[in-house]
Design brief:
Elements lengths: L12 H5 L5 H24 L5 H4 L6 H27 L5 H24 L6 H21 L6 H30 L6
Helix pairs in contact: 2-4, 2-6, 4-5, 4-7, 5-6, 5-7
Protein name: HXXEE domain-containing protein
InterPro entries: HXXEE (IPR025671)
Keywords: Membrane, Transmembrane, Transmembrane helix
C-alpha cells in the first residue's frame, strides 16, 4: 500500500520532499482554530438536530475542545519529527501521510455535515479553503513520488481514515473533557 523506501527521495527531489511533514500541523491548527471558536455555540444551537449517540458528548465546551485539539496537535508534531528523521534516511513520510489522510477525511466529513444540516458547521470554511487543497496536493505528491503505490491504495487509505477519524476525535474530546476538569474556573 505505502512504499517505505521510495526511489523518489534521491538526489535533487530529496530537498523538495524533505519539508513535506511540517505544513500539516499548521494546516491542522488553522482548521481547528475555526472549530475552537465556533463549536460550543454551534453544539448548543443544534443539539436537538444531532443523532442521539452524539448528544451524550454535548455540549462541547471551548476549553475541553481546545485541550483535545492540543493533544492532537502534539501527536501531529511528534509524527512530523518522526517522519523528518525518516526522510533524512531516504524513507517515506509514512506517518505524515496517514495524518494527512485523517485530516482530509475530516474535511470530507465537514462537507457532508454541512450538506446534511443545510447550514454552517464548525470547520467547513477552513476545510474547503485550506485542508482539502493541502490534502489533495500531498496525496498527489505521494502518488507521484510512489510513496503510495496506486490510486486504489490511496482510496483504501482514505476509507480507513474516514472510519478512524471519528473514534480518534471522540477520544480527544473525552480526554479534553477529563483534563478540563483539572483547570480551575474563576
Amino acid at each position: 500500500m505505502i512504499d517505505s523506501t521510495s526511489p523518489g527521495l534521491k538526489r535533487e527531489k530529496r530537498g523538495r520532499t524533505f519539508l513535506i511533514p511540517w505544513p500539516g500541523p499548521a494546516i491542522f491548527l488553522i482548521h481547528d482554530t475555526e472549530e475552537i471558536l465556533t463549536v460550543e455555540q454551534w453544539t448548543i444551537l443544534n443539539m436537538d438536530r444531532l443523532p442521539e449517540f452524539v448528544r451524550s458528548f454535548l455540549p462541547v465546551r471551548t476549553l475541553e475542545f481546545g485541550i483535545g485539539v492540543a493533544l492532537i496537535l502534539a501527536s501531529y508534531l511528534a509524527i512530523c519529527l518522526l517522519d523528518h528523521r525518516r526522510l533524512k534516511h531516504g524513507a517515506t513520510p509514512l506517518w505524515s501521510l496517514w495524518a494527512t489522510s485523517l485530516l482530509l477525511a475530516n474535511a470530507l466529513t465537514h462537507t457532508v455535515q454541512t450538506v446534511w444540516y443545510g447550514n454552517y458547521t464548525p470547520g467547513i470554511v477552513t476545510a474547503a479553503l485550506v485542508v482539502l487543497p493541502y490534502g489533495t496536493a500531498v496525496m498527489r505528491l505521494a502518488l507521484k513520488e510512489h510513496w503510495i503505490r496506486s490510486h486504489a491504495s490511496l482510496q483504501r487509505m482514505l476509507l480507513l481514515s474516514l472510519f478512524a477519524q471519528a473514534p480518534l476525535a471522540a477520544l480527544s474530546l473525552f480526554l479534553g473533557r477529563q483534563l478540563s476538569m483539572l483547570v480551575p474556573t474563576g
